Amino acid sequence: METLPDIVSRTIALPQEGHKLPISILNMASRRKLADMLNPERELDDSLELIPDYSGLAELISFMYNEILGFQNAESPTHALLNEWEKHNDKNPCIGQLWVHLEKLQRVDVMEESIKYISIDIDNELRRREKPSHSCNKLAKDGIVIDDQLVLTKEDIKYGCPQYYDVFVCWNSESVSDARFVEKMATKLEDNHFKLCIPTRDDLPGQAQYHSYATLIKIRCRLMIIVLSEEYHKSVECDFMTKFAHALSPATKQKKLVPVIVSKMDVPNLLRHVTLCDFTKEDMVDWNWKRLLKAVKDVSPDWEEGEGTKATHGQSAAKDDKKERKTNFFSKLFARKTHKQQK
User: Fold this and answer.
1) CA atoms of 58 and 38, how far apart (whole Å)
2) Burial track 272-288 (b if 16+ CB lie within 10 A, e otherwise)
3) Where is the Death domain (predicted)?
4) What is the overall mean pLDDT for the chain?
5) pLDDT score, position 255
6) Is the dihedral of CA 72, 73, 79, 82 positive or negative?
7) Where are the domains of the chain?
8) How far is it, in rounded angstroms, from Cα 72 to Cα 180?
9) What is the pLDDT of residue 211?
10) Which residues are paired to 258 by β-bridges?
11) N or C: which end of the chain has fewer CB within 10 A?
């Protein structure tokens, strides 16, 4: 007679090549499906000696009780769990291990519902990694050849090589009020010749989103500005970006995080030790803009008046072209949000 593991391995098998891939390649559809199935809390299963929901998964991964309580308090416990797990290499954060844990929890329903989405993510990642035998996998544009594993932003394609940035902006792109602040901030910083990477404006669709964010934050950007508002807490992407940047080495962390408050909200615990720029205090707005500019200058040692990271790397775009691209993006975003609200 077949056991449950036998049935699972026969009917809900992951693509073999995907077992060792990190869970960071999972995109939003996969994460949302897992969350939809694992977030609802269940009763203790005495035969398993586990609770077969996100908390049982967290126990199998070896998270401690206090950490699991933290996941429980998150808007989406499963999203929070996955985001935290992928930062712990000692806990084997790979897709094959996720499948093993789901089998132990006897959550065949979760496996059946999520296999389609996870298989798509695995296939996309494997195709991204493929390299023809005769040479590295390259993209060619206007005679310039670039390695596609380094193509993370629209400017990577435009200039034909990896782009580096002064600032990565962590923000909730679903918030119109936050978008207005980000637009104003981008104008001030980019007019001072700093180069910003703004998710939704500058990243490419179809990427392994969390993997791209991690690479941009850790390698491509000198500093991360975190836009804090009531809307910040609604974004699982913002939660991931903040925790990832915070988890970097202490020496790097000091120069990586600059939180700015744009509306009244509860500041996340892990940011309470970091000096904030509070734009909710109207009498100190001008002073905070100066502080923000100085914070960016301090981590851009090659910055001079009229020079920034963009010029440093030799791909200086026309200023008018940059302003037009920035203005068009925010204008379209505001129009789209307004249309959605009117519906």
Assistant:
1) 11
2) eebebbbbeeeeeeeeb
3) 53-118
4) 81
5) 52
6) negative
7) 16-130, 154-299
8) 32
9) 86
10) 225
11) N
**Whole-Å CA distances, 81 to 78, 93, 272:** 5, 11, 22
DSSP labels, 90-110: GG--BHHHHHHHHHHTT-HHH
The pLDDT, as a whole number, for residue 26 is 92
Amino acid at 137: N
- 42 pLDDT more than 90: yes
* pLDDT band per the 50, 70, 90 thresholds, residue 301: low
> Among candidates 188, 186, 10, 270, which has minimal Cα distance to 115?
10
Q: Judge whether 256 and 217 are in contact, CB under 8 Å.
A: yes
User: Residue written as tokens 């985001």?
Assistant: 83
| CATH topology classification for 154-299 | Rossmann fold (3.40.50)
How is domain 16-130 classified at the architecture level of CATH?
A: Orthogonal Bundle (1.10)
Structure-token match 């050849």, residue found = 145
Q: Which amino acid would we find at residue 29?
A: A
Helix axes 236-246, 77-85, angle to 10 degrees: 30
For residue 183, which of 323, 337, 36 has the smallest C-alpha distance?
323
Can you tell me the mean pLDDT for 42-62? 95
Residue 227 has what pLDDT?
A: 98
CB-based contact 238:226 (threshold 8 Å)? yes
SS (H, E, C) 235-254: CHHHHHHHHHHHCCCHHHHH
- Look at strands 221-228 and 277-278 and give their pairing: unpaired
Least confident residue range of 84-88, 272-276, 317-321: 317-321
- Give dist(CA 94, CA 32) in Å, integer: 17
Mean per-residue pLDDT, 8-17: 70
Residue 284 has pLDDT above 90, yes or no: yes
Distance CA 242, CA 268 (A): 10
Q: Which two tokens stand for residue 126?
A: 């494997």
